[in-house]
Each structure stands twice: as C-alpha cells, then as structure tokens.
Q: What sequence folds into this?
C-alpha cells in the first residue's frame, strides 16, 4: 500500500523535473513576488518608519523571504485536480484504482512538494541569501519549532484545498472555487502582510479562522516574535484545526462518493 | 482602401459577437471569476492601506496616490485582457497548428489572431479597476477637466499598446522555442507588481531596466507620478507623459508586430 503512494509521489517528482523551461520561469515568478514584498517592507521602514514596531526591518525581510519560499514549497493541487478530473470525467479511472482517491491525490501533492524543495525552494532561498543576506532563524530553538509547525501548516492547507475541491462534486458549473479560496487565503494567512499589522477587529476574527495558522504561525516562530510556550500553544491550535478539517473532509467525502457524476463516456 | 477597412471592421464585429455569445452560453461558469477577481484586487489595495497606515507613505506615495496608481494600472490591464487575450496563447496555437486555419483565409493573420476573440470576461477585471481608480481620483482630488480626460485616454491607449507589445513579443518567441506558456504567467505577475505599485520602490538598476529596455514604467507609473506631481525616481523628459506613453506604445507595438511576422516565417504547422 505504502509502495503505491511512494510510486505516485516519485512519478510526480520525475515529471516536474522534466519540464526545465517551466521550472526556470516558475523560479523567476516566485523571485519577483519575493522581491516585490521585500522592497515594499524596506520602503515602509525607510528613514525611521515603523520606529515603534516590535519587529525590525530585518525581521520583516526574513519573514517575506521565508513566506515566499513556503509559498513555492506548499503544493496543494488537489482542488484543481478534483475540478479538472470531474470536468473531464477522468475521475472514473481514479476511482477504479485500489487506493483511496484522496490518499492518491495527497501522495501526488507530496511528490510535487518534494520536487519543489529541490527545484524551487532551495534556489529561491539561495537567491534571497545572496541579495539580502542569510535570513537565519531567531535562535536554534525557533528553527526546531518552525519545522514541525510548517508540517502542520501544510496539513491545514491541503485539507482546505481538498474541501474546496469537493465543491466540484455538487456544482461543477460554478467554475473552480479553489481560486476564490486562494484569494482569501492570500490575505488572511498573513503571507504578505502579517495579521498583527491589521486593525484589532480583523485580528480578533482571524484568530478564529484557520487561515493565519498556515503562514503567520510558522513564520512568527521563525523570526522569534512568539516565545516558546506561545509557539507550542499556536501549534496546538494548528493541530486542532487539522483534526476539525479532517473530520469535515471525511464527512463530505462520504456524501460526495454517492454524488459522483461521471462526465463523457 | 476604405472598402478593405470596412471589410476588416465588419469581420471584427462579427468575431466579437460570436465570442461574447460563446462565453454567455454558460453564464454560471463566470461565478468563480466574478467572485475571485474583484476580491483579489480589492484586498490587494486594502493590504497596501494597512501598510501605509501602520508605517508611512511608500517612497512618498500615500494611500490616495497608491489607489490612483493601482486603479490606473488595473484599468489598462483590464482593457488588454478584453482585446488582446489571444496573444497569451500563441505557443499553444503554434504547437497545435492553429495558424493553418488563419493562413488559409484571405486576411491579415495578425489581425485575425487578435480580433478573433474578444474576451468578455475581461470586463470583470475592469470593474474593480474603475472602482479603485474612481476612488483614487476622489481621494487625490483629481480634477476632471477636458485636458485631463484627454491625457488619461492617451495614457490608457499607450499603456494597453505597451502591454500588448510585450505579450506579442513574448508569444512570438514560441515560433522558435515551441513552448513558453509559463512565461506569460511570469509577465502577468511582473506587470502587476510594476504597474500597480510605485516603480520607485525598486532599486535603480531595476527601474532603469523597466524604463529603457522594457518600457513598463510608461504604462502607469510615470503618467500617474505626473498627474499627481509626485517623485518618479528621477526620470526627466520634456513634454508630457500623455505624449510619451502613446509614442512608446506605438513604437513597441510595431516592433513586436515585426517580431511576430518574422516568427510567422518560421511557422511550420503541426505534424500529422
């Protein structure tokens, strides 16, 4: 069973490495996004701006670089996969396979993520180190907490993506709702502007939503904005969200299976 | 001459009608775009507001001016997406041999490529563009005199031509390389970060590159800086950008068109 998943992940890794031209362009796209946010933060702090802030400009540069790197790393294609396969009717062949459908898609995304480490995240991080100096963690303990927190983040992101993808089982005509989720995520995850900088009411509402626990939580740990205990607390919240979303996904999936409509023939 | 022009116009309007009808065939399909695109741009400008309110104006650009620039850049993006969307998929047309069909018709191939698809959905990009720009005008106290409106139209026209030239040139590379789909995504993102955010945020090397080599700065940044009387990073040209932008637009459009024609000679149709 595990071998089957490993095979899917390996095949994804190999396909991604084949398209070299796409690979270069995607590095440059991520680089532009990273440069733009770093330069915006530098302008915001220039000449004594943000003097009263707890975070320095270097903290925000590190935050932006790591955020872009994570953005390149967290591959969650499941929403698009489900949408496209439903539209084209290919979901039928995937359901034949002696593997749970979602498990297969997760393996596919993990393969995508592994290849991203090599061909996206590392080059991007090196570029950033070259331009702006090495964006190191606040201290070794921050790094030690950052890594598990990132894994939890990926869990939340993937489950959200799969849940939104499930919408296609009911209403295919509305187009890909994953795009809408991605826009909301881009703002409320704190990937560009951390939620700490938003007005108070936004922060309060956001604390009860899963989004800020995807980017802001691990990044805040990395730059040392939160202490060890607070970091552990945040990670506990991440785990709770994973449990909730997983339960929800299981319930939705049970219903979706009976709703499956195979297009074409 | 006039007869030819009229013929081309009638074909273009016929194409446009067909394209719009085709897209309205499945109206619900637009729902996700209709939710996604405005949310994306409204939250984009909101995040800039959060930054300048908490910190300081970005290189002299405060929220009203940023809104003005963001809106101006977005409108010209929206117009491009309506009229020139086919330039985004030249590589696919090269690989699939779709130019065969256009070559068989007794009409200019480039005209057919551009005119054959009026992207009605692109209007969804124009809506937040107009709303944000109008709000920016209100906040900055932009005066709607006849001269200002004429300047604005010239700038938009020139900006759309520069954008179109860029995508035509990038697309034409596909005649040689056969694939460059990902480059379009790269160009879209780069344009968004350089026409809707002040160019003066970036280092001098990048500013010069985006002014003299790839004239992206002319699309919205320099004109907006002139309209608002703000620091544009030190580029000084005689006369108004309302003249420079269309001039640069026309020149780059012709250059890109030349590259496209050169590429067409390399076109070898698709196998089997």
A:
């Amino acid at each position: 069973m595990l071998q089957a998943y490993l095979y899917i992940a390996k095949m994804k890794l190999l396909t991604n490495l084949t398209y070299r031209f796409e690979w270069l362009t995607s590095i440059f796209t991520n680089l532009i996004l990273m440069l733009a946010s770093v330069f915006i933060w530098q302008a915001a702090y220039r000449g004594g701006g943000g003097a009263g802030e707890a975070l320095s400009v270097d903290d925000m540069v590190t935050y932006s670089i790591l955020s872009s790197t994570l953005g390149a790393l967290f591959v969650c294609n499941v929403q698009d996969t489900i949408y496209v396969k439903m539209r084209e009717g290919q979901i039928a062949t995937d359901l034949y396979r002696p593997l749970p459908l979602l498990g297969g898609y997760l393996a596919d995304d993990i393969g995508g993520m592994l290849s991203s480490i090599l061909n996206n995240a590392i080059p991007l991080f090196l570029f950033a180190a070259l331009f702006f100096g090495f964006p190191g963690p606040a201290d070794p303990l921050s790094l030690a907490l950052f890594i598990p927190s990132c894994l939890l983040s990926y869990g939340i992101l993937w489950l959200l993506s799969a849940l939104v993808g499930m919408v296609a089982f009911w209403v295919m005509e509305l187009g890909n709702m994953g795009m809408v989720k991605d826009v909301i995520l881009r703002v409320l995850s704190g990937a560009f502007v951390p939620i700490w900088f938003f007005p108070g009411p936004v922060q309060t509402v956001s604390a009860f939503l899963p989004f800020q626990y995807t980017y802001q939580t691990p990044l805040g740990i990395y730059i040392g904005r939160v202490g060890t205990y607070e970091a552990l607390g945040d990670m506990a919240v991440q785990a709770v969200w994973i449990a909730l979303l997983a339960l929800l996904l299981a319930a939705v999936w049970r219903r979706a299976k009976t709703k499956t409509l195979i297009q074409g023939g | 001459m006039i007869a030819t022009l009229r013929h081309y116009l009638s074909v273009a309007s016929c194409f446009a009608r067909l394209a719009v009808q085709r897209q309205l065939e499945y109206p619900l399909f637009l729902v996700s775009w209709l939710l996604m695109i405005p949310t994306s741009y409204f939250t984009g400008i909101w995040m800039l507001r959060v930054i300048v309110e908490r910190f300081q104006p970005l290189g002299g650009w405060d929220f009203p001016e940023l809104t003005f620039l963001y809106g101006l850049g977005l409108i010209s993006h929206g117009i491009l997406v309506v009229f020139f969307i086919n330039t985004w998929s030249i590589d696919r047309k090269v690989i699939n041999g779709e130019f065969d069909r256009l070559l068989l018709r007794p009409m200019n191939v480039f005209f057919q490529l551009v005119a054959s698809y009026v992207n009605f959905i692109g209007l969804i990009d124009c809506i937040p563009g107009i709303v944000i720009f109008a709000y920016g005008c209100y906040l900055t106290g932009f005066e709607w005199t006849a001269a200002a409106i004429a300047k604005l139209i010239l700038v938009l026209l020139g900006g759309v031509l520069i954008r179109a030239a860029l995508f035509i040139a990038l697309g034409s590379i596909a005649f040689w390389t056969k694939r460059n789909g990902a480059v379009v995504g790269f160009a879209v993102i780069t344009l968004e970060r350089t026409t809707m955010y002040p160019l003066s945020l970036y280092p001098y090397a990048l500013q010069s590159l985006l002014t003299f080599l790839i004239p992206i700065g002319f699309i919205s940044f320099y004109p907006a800086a002139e309209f608002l009387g703000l620091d544009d990073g030190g580029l000084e040209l005689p006369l108004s950008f309302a003249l420079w932008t269309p001039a640069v637009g026309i020149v780059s459009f012709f250059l890109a068109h030349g590259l496209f024609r050169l590429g067409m000679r390399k076109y070898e149709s698709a196998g089997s």
About this structure: Chain A has a mean pLDDT of 87.
